[in-house]
Write a structure and sequence with these properties.
The protein is an alpha/beta fold and 422 residues long. The protein has three domains: 207 residues, Up-down Bundle (Alpha-lytic protease prodomain-like), CATH 1.20.1510; 76 residues, Alpha-Beta Plaits (2-Layer Sandwich); 127 residues, 2-Layer Sandwich (Nucleotidyltransferase, domain 5). The chain has a six-stranded mixed sheet, with helices on both faces. α1 runs antiparallel to α2, α2 runs antiparallel to α3 and α3 packs parallel to α5. The protein is rod-shaped and about 110 Å long. The two termini are 51 Å apart.
């Protein structure tokens, strides 16, 4: 949270500096336009004045967004930055309308300069340079801290470059006594500015109404969560935008036999991975539900490879093979056989096997005996363990016992010494 507030303050400081620079430039344009009788430069001064108010609104919104959460505002004041963007959109739109009217009026007026307008041209060139520097900084910081208002201001500053270029052309056209050109170009730029203002207003309203504007992030979060071991199915991913930050809500299903502690641990893992990967995500609200999937994946230690007639091995870690089966209602399908490549090891065979077989996305293990290390490793990977009872059983016998609810869950190791040492 401290890092996020620092980023907000960085954007706030930039906006304040841009406010002061733009204000001084607006005053300079107004004075020179007035004394040199350049109405187009005076109009541009009013345009810069509107920019000043808009940038200040952004700074004020970022300042509010950086305030600490409170009992009255438990979610923070991040949307103040969105309100600032809404105000910015209004001022940009107003500036566009004013410029449109001014351009229309200038279609029929040709100002006359008595001498070459060095100062009006000079201040206009200065305006272009300053607008470019401010736009680059606002864009860079806006992208860094995901500030919608700074990005909006950057777009407006880039448009200022074009509008100042038009002003420069207008001054030159006026000096050369070319009719209509000045007004026509100003009308064109005013329409572009008006479009940008309306887009900012519309986007801000959508955010304030909690519209989901980040479908790409939604897909990425869903995929990231789906790849976390223990998560069965992800659904209802919702994203709310609050100023420069995102707030995410999602639901996922998991093994219904998970303990409350393990379910809480899994939700913490989901939250941690999302917030770690996406810095602009401020909070993640996760709800876990028991899975209602009809298909499950089970693994059984066996002595040989003979389909459903394979003989069950009594020791998990020392079984030469493992059969992996898919169970869906009354339908059973063998997915794969796994060769135990760790039989030559003297210690921790079961642990080595577990590290490999968990990649199959297991839900259940059927075994007669299981040691302490292997048991807790499997439980940490959200695998239910059922105890097989009886000698000379086949895979088919075990699956029939499971479907007839004759098997009980193993809730603790069958012996303290790991079967890998047996």
């Amino acid at each position: 949270m401290k890092n996020k507030n620092q980023k907000l303050k960085k954007g706030q400081h930039l906006a304040l500096i841009a406010t002061i620079v733009t204000l001084l430039l607006s005053v300079l344009k107004g004075l020179i336009g007035y004394f040199f009788h350049s109405k187009v430069l005076v109009a541009d001064a009013f345009h810069s004045g509107a920019d000043t108010i808009a940038i200040f609104a952004s700074a004020f919104g970022l300042w509010l967004a950086s305030r600490s959460k409170s009992d009255r505002f438990p979610y923070g004041l991040y949307k103040a930055e969105t309100l600032g963007t809404l105000v910015i959109g209004g001022f940009i739109g107003w500036a566009g309308v004013e410029l449109l009217i001014d351009g229309f009026n200038k279609l029929f007026i040709v100002p006359v300069f008595q001498e070459f307008p060095y100062l009006p041209i000079g201040v206009t060139l200065l305006s272009i340079i300053i607008a470019f520097v401010i736009a680059k900084k606002e864009k860079a910081v806006g992208d860094e801290i995901h500030s919608q208002s700074l990005i909006a201001n950057a777009k407006e500053s880039f448009l200022d470059i074009w509008s100042s270029t038009v002003v420069l052309m207008g001054i030159l056209f006026a000096y050369l006594k070319i009719p209509y050109a000045e007004g026509a170009i100003i009308i064109l730029i005013s329409l572009i500015i008006l479009k940008l203002g309306l887009e900012n207003i519309w986007t801000s309203l959508l955010i304030l109404m909690d519209a989901n504007l980040d479908s790409e992030l939604q897909k990425q979060v869903e995929q990231l969560t789906q790849n976390i071991y223990g998560v069965h199915e992800v659904h209802d991913v919702k994203i709310r935008q609050a100023g420069p930050f995102r707030m995410i809500e999602l639901k996922f299903t998991a093994n219904p036999s998970l303990t409350l502690f393990k379910a809480h641990e899994l939700t913490d893992e989901v939250e941690r991975k999302i917030i770690t990967k996406y810095e602009h995500v401020e909070t993640v609200f996760v709800h876990v539900e028991p899975s209602t999937e009809e298909m499950v994946t089970a693994i059984i230690p066996v002595k040989d490879i003979n389909g459903l007639k394979s003989k069950v091995h009594q020791h998990f870690g020392r079984a030469p093979y493992f059969v992996i089966v898919k169970i869906e209602n009354n339908r059973i399908e063998i997915e794969d056989f796994y060769l135990n490549e760790f039989l030559d090891k003297e210690k921790h065979v079961g642990l080595s096997v577990v590290k490999v077989i968990v990649n199959y996305g297991l839900d259940m293990l059927f075994t007669a005996q299981i040691g302490e290390i292997t048991f807790y490793m499997l439980k940490d990977n959200f695998v239910d363990i059922y105890q097989i009872k009886g000698a000379n059983l086949t895979v088919n016998d075990v699956l029939i016992q499971y479907q007839q609810n004759q098997l009980s869950r193993i809730t603790k190791p069958t012996h303290s010494v790991d079967e890998a040492l047996v």
